[in-house]
Amino acid sequence: MVSLAAYLAVLAVGFAVFGPVVRRELAALERGGIADPDYLRLRRQAQLLSLGTIAALAMILALMVAKPT
Asked: What's the number of domains the chain is made of?
């Protein structure tokens, strides 16, 4: 149950937070290039969100494999 709840949380964060950040990041890149401060800020935010997502998915995988009681 914990892994399912974590999966749903990752899915919700992906749609509600990560997707819009990446869309804004791409828009800033098109607008101002790679030196644009908005792009750099959003790039860092997207990187942190992706690291959190990877960590959560690794935890889900560990829970699914170990099947703790």
From this structure: 1
